[in-house]
Write a structure and sequence with these properties.
Elements: H1 5-11, H2 13-16, H3 22-29, E1 41-45, E2 48-54, E3 58-65, E4 78-79, E5 85-91, E6 98-105, E7 111-114, E8 130-131, H4 142-151, E9 159-163, E10 170-171, E11 177-178, H5 181-195, E12 199-202, E13 206-207, E14 220-224, H6 231-243, E15 247-252, H7 278-281, E16 282-283, E17 288-289, H8 296-312, E18 317-320, H9 323-327, H10 349-365, E19 370-373, E20 395-397, H11 399-409, H12 420-424, E21 435-439, H13 451-454, H14 459-475, E22 479-483, H15 508-526, E23 540-547, E24 552-558, E25 565-571, E26 577-584, E27 589-595, E28 611-613, E29 624-630, E30 634-640
Helix pairs in contact: 5-6, 8-10, 14-15
Amino acid sequence: MALSADQSKKAGPDFNSTMLTSEDLHLFNEGSHSRLYNKLGSHPATGGTYFSVWAPNAEAVFVMGDFNGWNKSSHVLISQGVSGIWAVFIDNVKAGTLYKYHIVSRHNGIKSDKADPMAFYHEAPPKTASIVWSLDYEWQDKHWMCSRGQRQKLESPQAVYEVHLGSWRRVVEEGARPLTYREMAEQLPGYVKSMGFTHVEFLPVMEHPFYGSWGYQTSGYFAPTSRYGTPQDFMHLVDTLHQHAIGVILDFSMAHFPSDAHGLAFFDGTHLYEHADPQKGWHPDWNSCIFNYGRHEVRSFLISVALFWLEKYHIDGLRFDAVASMLYLDYSRNEGQWSPNEHGGRENLDAIHFLRRLNEEIYQNYPDVQTIAEESTAWPMVSRPTYAGGLGFGLKWDMGWMHDTLRYLKRDPIHRQYHQNGITFRMVYAFHENFMLPLSHDEVVHGKGSLLAVMPGDDSLKFANLRLLYSYQYAQPGKKLLFMGCELGQWHEWSHDASLDWNLLEYKPHAGLKRLVRDLNAIYSAYPAMHALDCDSGGFEWIDASDAQSSILSFIRKDADDKNLMLAVFNLTPVMRTNYRVGAPWGGFWKEILNSDGREYGGTGCGNYGGVQAEEVPIHGRNFSLNLTLPPLSGIFFKRMNA
């Protein structure tokens, strides 16, 4: 039975846009409805609020809240045919009203009180009610939105600052509480802009019951967490970042969700959102539920999640966590704990189909955004188009580069000569995908130590090695990502319960490290040779990767113009090398653009007095060469100046 004409008329004209039509129900049930947020959930209208929820195995569904004294049976929803959706319009319910659904299952009469899966706003945890809310907001970011396609193409620089909202800065005077969205808008954009980052990536902002999950255990996929303010407050933060010409990427997980009683798990007394088979529906790593990617309505739900943030919050990119756990049926499972697919393989065919469909919907509707996969295996063609057999993501995190490089640099430099392949191997596969090079939050938690702390040697050598790491990251082809605090040189692991150690900037080594990151960002963005062919093999050329005994690497970065070059040389030991000759493709003067051992960064100040004149002395297969001084543990960039 559908809503009556009287109810529709009473609700007013704004109600009609949210009322479910027969086409909506059809598209939803076949998995093709990509904007469920306009139809399901709670929508305030003239004279009241429209509620609708998917619960196909319910005997009855009621809405309760502070408008009816939390009465579990006074306001019943009406079944919308065979769609599994229940809906009702309730008079005099306004924005700001707290509510939940009381669901009576037809299976054993199970009764449960559930938050609205489609709610735009929820109570701040540990409270769990949903809140009737509208998303009205006057955006001021037209210039950014019109230009972001150019800024986000693969040929453009993308240097990402990864941020956890609750621990970037805290208000010490008020019990060390986190900043609100509005307070972040006053501080974060200016800082990110001054550091030269092009984008911010927020760890999941979607509502989550357990703060210590960092947002990866999501309960409210359509709501920014109310810990820091309202939906409009978060919009203001995004808007302000855009006005500073900074893109916004959201990190979140479609790989799993928590089993909290008020959430999606066992929603209508059955395994509705999660797969009923525990071999496919339960994640052993995180003790959480796995979505049933083969169910049409679940696909509609998840695709709607992605488009929601792109449409309503003007988000510029989506980074998908733990994609590998979605792709493999045997992920983190022992023999006997998983079953092969219909072809006898370990691939999750439903998840593959879903991911391809998801990326197709996103890029069809928003071709100027980026989707980014954290995929930790060698799954082929993650960032290649679906029409070519790929998964359709725009970029993929290069986890191999991160692991190999950190493993290499953690070694005592005296042993690095025996592990040259560890630092050079990346170039075997560097252009198989469109890569982003991450030094993320995952590298500074769970007993791993901070990046600075795990570097070998005394304090001065630790800083030199870390400056070397960042220089190598920025010289390599690929987009860049750095977790907050890494630019400060934190000594301890990141803690989600505390602010970054901003006081460290009172000390020269830390201030110097921050300046280096700023200058690396500036160089990366200013010189096309450093970014224009990040994802194209034409943008990289080895000069010499074979001097393992001295642990020295040299290579060229370039754009489409072969004469527009940046030459990078890395001394991976604490021994200064003088009169070290490196091949050069052209004669003329090569200006020293950056030296990570510069005094301004906290280094020794050794270098090449601003540049070197190429000499017609052949080496490394080149007709010209540079006679260089290579400071200890350093990365140096040279740019050929016009003759």
